[in-house]
Design goal:
alpha+beta; Double-stranded beta-helix; 6 helices; binds succinic acid
Length: 277
């Protein structure tokens, strides 16, 4: 299909769906549409993708350079593709809380290309929240204060030894020694859109630089509650072949864990990013 017939339709709260785009056979104009939509809306949703792992890798590479995630189990033959998997006998899922990937890196991953391989009969949706909109809705006074602040982000408490995953049946994600930390502005200028974005998240932000943990939690707690108001959130229902491509700088996501006793498998490719200002 040509660009003339394809358009991104904003989805409630966050993101946009592009109907009729076949990622395995995308034109340059299709890729440009995906990139523009990502910069503006934070997530692109595609349906009915029939991609082999090789095709998913080739498609992802056209959206952005691939970076291999340190912690996630990889598919046997393709190190670029991480398995986001929950077996029927497991009770903990991966990504089951609000977060944005890799904020603990100096140059956080730009985004991810997540393809649903096997989905439960119901449940297993993913929530996406729009951090442009969350920032825009704050008062001018709070925005001005936030723009003077930096926040510290860490990974050890999630992926290190004795981390939150360690005592669960997803312990394969824990026990890592390579656990980076980074400091980023609380409000960043998005590298592609030039718009301001709220850049803290409940999973990896530990505190505001120069503030105590207690002081930090009071402010961060307010922002976290604000950022997931229903008007900023889209709930995406997966079927095998559904794909979400998201921008980590302008969105958060949260994988719902409401399908106990059923299998869910997603193939995730992470896209490399730049240092944030
Ligand atoms: C993640 O990358 O956090 C997992 C998202 C999902 O499984 O829906």
């Amino acid at each position: 299909m040509s660009l003339a017939t394809l358009a991104a339709r904003p989805t409630d709260g966050c993101g946009a769906e592009i109907e009729g785009l076949d990622g395995a056979r995308a034109s340059d104009a299709d890729i440009e549409l995906i990139r523009d939509t990502l910069a503006q809306r934070g997530v692109v949703f595609l349906r009915d993708q029939k991609m082999t792992p090789e095709e998913q890798i080739a498609f992802a590479r056209r959206v952005g350079p691939i970076v291999v995630n340190r912690y996630f189990p990889k598919t046997e033959r393709y190190p670029e593709i991480a398995k986001v998997e929950k077996r029927a006998d497991q009770t903990t899922n991966i990504g089951g809380g609000w977060h944005t990937d890799h904020s603990y890196d100096e140059a956080p991953a730009m985004g991810s290309v997540l393809l649903a391989v096997e989905t439960p009969p119901s449940g297993g949706d993913t929530l996406f929240a729009d951090m442009y909109a969350a920032y825009d809705a704050l008062s001018d006074g709070l925005k001005a204060t936030l723009e003077t602040l930096k926040a510290h982000h860490a990974s050890a408490h999630v992926f290190g030894e004795g981390s939150v995953y360690a005592a669960t049946d997803q312990a394969v994600l824990a026990g890592h020694k390579d656990t980076p930390e980074a400091v980023h502005p609380v409000v960043i200028v998005h590298p592609d859109s030039g718009k301001k974005v709220l850049y803290v998240n409940p999973a990896f932000t530990t505190h505001i630089v120069g503030w105590t943990r207690e002081e930090s939690m009071a402010l961060l707690g307010y922002l976290y509650e604000h950022a997931i108001k229903p008007q900023f959130v889209h709930r995406f229902q997966w079927k095998p072949g559904s794909m979400a491509i998201w921008d980590n700088r302008s969105t958060w996501h949260h994988a719902m864990n409401d399908y106990q006793g059923h299998y869910r498998l997603m193939h995730r490719i992470t896209l490399d990013g730049v240092k944030l200002n």
